[in-house]
Amino acid sequence: AVLVESLLVFAVVLSVHAVVWDRFSWCAVALALQAFYVQFKWDRLLQLGGAVFQFRGAANSGLLPASMVMPLLGVVMKERCRAAGIVYFERFGIVVASTGMLLALFLSVLAVGITKPVPTNTCILTGIAGSVIIYTMKHSLTVSEVIEVLEVLLIFVYLSMILLYLLPRCFTPGEALLVLGGVSFVLNQLIKRSLNVIEGRGDPIDFFLLVAVVGVVLLGLFFTVLFIFMDSGTWISSMFFHMMTAVLGLGVIMPWLYRLIQRNPLFWLLQFLFQTQTRLYLLVYWTFLAASACGVVFYQNAKRSSESKKHQASTITRKYFHFIVVATYVPGLIYDRQLLYVAAVLCLAVFIFLEYVRYFRIKPFGQTLRHLLSLFLDERDSGPLILTHIYLLLGMSLPVWLFPRSCAPKGTLPGAGALVPYAGVLAVGVGDTIASVFGSTMGEIKWPGTKKTFEGTMTAIFAQIIAVALILIFDSSVNLNSGYAWILASVSLVSLLEAYTTQIDNLLLPLYLQIMLMA
């Protein structure tokens, strides 16, 4: 299964660089080869319990698929912005690609360094890959860009040491690279933009995303350290939690956002949300869907209490939420993508805050949330945090957040790139959901080495093709020209990757589909 997963990742890397071949292509190929070898060292460390931190069980390290996400995303972003003539974001793409390569190389060196005896061949391969990457960075980056890449690496190192210690068994090494690498990059971007604020420069919704992500992470770190020294389940601790959340929100996050957007954040948000009648309709519709999702949770828990033998929700029950999320995102993508962008940021902040309430058992809702959400746990929620619903939101939202709006003058990219904002809907909302439902109910032929079925994968590919046809009918801004073969190949590769990966597919699949569509 690991070999097939690696072959699929290599197929994506070669497909992208067959279209976009430049000096970074050699780096990407070298990085993929060394990550393939180092991945087995990480897997051995995890099996023998020799890793420094406790990682999520029942999964391989996932180093290769995670290592290639940021480099490939940076390369395709660079090419799209170069074609549009936007030099600033072309350079930004180069920084993203270089940062992704350096973070992946660091994780590889870490695995090689703690493996005993030291694997000579893997060390040589890692050294060659590192030399190619550093040589290319030397001739591609300015001094300020090199400093920026090293800043992200430094933040990543410290953030990894803190969060992997505080949150055992929540991530695989690959998932840690994706999540903590992304948070490190966002934090560095926020610091950089805060120090270089130019009035009227930058989109407020971009700043809103940066501040929201960094704010909730800092909030979690603060309370994690605080509750080491006091019991979080008492009423006094709970009152202190709510009070400090208000203080940090109104005293730190709001002024920080005010400095960036040069206006009152609350007034700006209210004006933005209720700017048009379409937005009002969408907000009412989304409120109804949110209430429906809560209804599913309460109904399933009531059903569990009446059926004592039932302890966990079935796969099909969990996929109800995928259908609700698709019904949420598709109208937003068609009618108002900026509103969807901001609403997804708000939803992420609420989800993470509620997870803090559940994890710390904050009164009056902490224990209730623990009871309600325990029904929907699966084997991937083996750590103290429940992250699958947050990963689902991230998987649907990342293609919207990472869409290079400045490099798409008409609001959409040409050809298959027009489907980039729909990557989460296609890969997770349609493909993963249909594969899971049909595979678990009608699948008989299993892919070698996995529990996934051939019928589930084929049905997922077919369902995504139908979804693309429906998008063409209902979204007039999408014009695929002659990119149908590339779309079919992209959907097929990502669906096969879903069948073989043991990583969090809600997070990984949309990013790979976005990379393929942007290429």
From TrEMBL:
- Coiled-coil region: none
Q: Can you say where in the cell this protein is located?
A: Endoplasmic reticulum membrane
Q: Which gene encodes it?
A: Dolk
Q: Taxonomic lineage of this organism?
A: Eukaryota, Metazoa, Chordata, Craniata, Vertebrata
Among InterPro entries, the record links this protein to: Polypren_kinase
Keyword Repeat in record: no
Q: Which family does it belong to?
A: Belongs to the polyprenol kinase family.
One GO CC term on file: endoplasmic reticulum membrane
Q: What class of enzyme is it?
A: transferase
Some GO term, biological process aspect, for this entry: which one? dolichyl monophosphate biosynthetic process
Q: What superkingdom heads the lineage?
A: Eukaryota
Name of the protein this chain belongs to:
dolichol kinase
Listed GO molecular functions? dolichol kinase activity
Q: What is its EC number?
A: 2.7.1.108
Tell me which UniProt keywords the record has, alphabetically. Endoplasmic reticulum, Kinase, Membrane, Transferase, Transmembrane, Transmembrane helix
Q: Which residues cross the membrane?
A: 7-37, 57-76, 88-112, 118-137, 149-167, 207-228, 240-258, 278-299, 320-335, 341-361, 382-402, 422-442, 454-474, 486-513
Query: How does the UniProt record describe the way this protein sits in the membrane?
Result: Multi-pass membrane protein
